Structures are given as C-alpha cells and as structure tokens.
Amino acid sequence: MVLLAFGLSLAGRAPLQKGDGRTETLVATFLKIAGMPFIVWVLGRFVFGLEGEHLLASVIMAALPTAQNVFLFASPYGRGTTVARDVILCTTILSVGALLVVAWLV
To answer: Which helix (H) or strand (E) holds 99?
Structure first.
C-alpha cells in the first residue's frame, strides 16, 4: 500500500519543482547519498575498529536509498510530502551509483 501511495504521488508532478522545497530535497539527498556513508565509514573504521566485510556491510547499509516510511509518516499530516517524495525518488536513483562507489572504495 505504501508503494502504491508513493507511486500515485509521482503522477502528474515532476520532481524538484521550483518552490516545492528543492533546496531541502537536494541537501537531504546529498546527506543521505554521500554524508551518511562517509560518517558510517569513519565511525566504523576508527571508532569501532571494523574491517573487511563488516565495514563494507555497514557502509552499504548507510548508502541504501531513503525508505518509503518517510513518505508514509508525512502523508497523514500533509507536511513535507513533496520533499519526502522527491528525496525518496532521488536517493533511489542515485543509490545505484553510490553503492557501486562504496563497493569499489571499501
């Protein structure tokens, strides 16, 4: 049902429209795709002493796209649904490249 609701929210409106929280969407997307995996790598490597497969698994999990739950929680309140929708869409598309880069670097 969540995926159906998300798909319906994409119909008729292009993502990243001016005035619909484009700046917030781009910042959240950057933080999710680049910032979060970097922070997890630093913490995993230097704080928790992870190496090899454990470090790779941690960073891969951080590089996954934003979950549909964000849209699910925003919908009933009618607050931030456009930003949530756009962040989910952008991170889903960009996560493919991010996962490949993480696998190559780590």
So the answer is: helix 81-105
Amino acid at site 78: G
Instruction: Map residue 74 onto helix, strand or coil.
Output: helix
- The pTM (predicted TM-score) of the whole model is 0.86
Largest CA distance in the chain: 48
Collapsing DSSP to helix, strand or coil, 59 comes out as: helix
From residue 2, how far is each of 40, 42, 77 by CA, in Å?
28, 33, 15
Per-residue model confidence as pLDDT tens digits over 26-74? 999 999 999 999 999 999 999 999 999 999 999 999 999 988 888 889 8
Kind and range of the H or E element at 5? helix 2-10
Length of the chain: 106
Q: How many CB atoms lie within 10 A of CB 76?
A: 8
Rounded Cα–Cα distance for residues 61 and 29 (Å): 15
